[in-house]
Write a structure and sequence with these properties.
The protein is of the alpha+beta class. The protein has helices spanning 19-27, 73-103, 107-135, 141-163, 166-200; strands spanning 2-4, 7-8, 35-42, 45-46, 66-72. Strands 2-1-5-3-4 form a 5-stranded mixed β-sheet. Helix 2 runs antiparallel to helix 3, helix 2 (73-103) runs antiparallel to helix 5 (166-200) and helix 4 packs antiparallel against helix 5. It is elongated, with a radius of gyration of 22 Å. 17% of the residues are buried.
């Protein structure tokens, strides 16, 4: 049995070789257009991939019941945008903690935290950029300016990493990166507001 958003689907599990085939076929259905799958339950247990294409390894003969839950892509966009300001707070906190660790001479811990921080910042910028491009016809002037400023700062920090000037790196994190996070928090709130207005039209 296949259940999609509370409704029994006409597809038969045994007509497919594995879970990935079922999901791929379902996503091509017109009813799933502009929707995002949020949850997959196999035999009443939540399924999430630990590695890419893990669903391909789950044979259909091991599946008795498959339940899919989805939301409109616009709702997912709103939900993500509504949480983006929390990421800016996490970025700011991570920057200050990294600076503190460098100043305390805990360079190994600081470098590990810095790498995690840089990954978060890159993902954040990519997500904000994608939301603007997809739903708001691209970036506005302020967004472009702030993105360039943050990208320039990240490049400067990368250069300093090579020289191992931990004092200068700490100063950049605390006195330049943290204030930029405050500015990005405002931009994140504005992005959410713009999306709410866009989808209300």
């Amino acid at each position: 049995m296949i259940i999609v958003d509370g409704q029994q689907n006409t597809r038969t599990i045994q007509n497919f070789d594995n879970l990935e085939e079922i999901l791929t076929d379902l996503m091509q259905d017109k009813s799933m257009e502009n929707r995002i799958i949020t949850d997959v339950f196999v035999n009443n247990e939540i399924f999430s991939e630990i590695y890419p294409h893990q669903a391909e390894d789950l044979a259909s003969d091991s599946i008795e019941r498959l339940e899919i839950r989805s939301v409109p892509a616009t709702q997912m966009a709103l939900d993500i945008a509504g949480e983006m300001y929390k990421v800016t707070k996490m970025m700011q906190s991570g920057g200050k903690n990294t600076a503190r660790l460098f100043r305390e001479g805990k360079n190994t811990d600081a470098l590990e935290l810095l790498q995690d921080l840089l990954d978060v910042v890159r993902d954040f910028l990519a997500m904000v950029g994608d939301l603007r491009e997809r739903y708001l016809s691209g970036a506005d002037t302020e967004f472009k300016t702030k993105t360039n400023e943050l990208s320039d700062l990240l490049s400067e920090m990368s250069d300093i990493l090579e020289t191992e000037d931990w004092v200068l790196l700490s100063d950049l994190l605390e006195y330049e990166f943290a204030p930029q996070c405050d500015e990005w928090e405002v931009l994140a709130h504005n992005l959410h507001k713009e999306l709410v207005e866009r989808f209300a039209q």
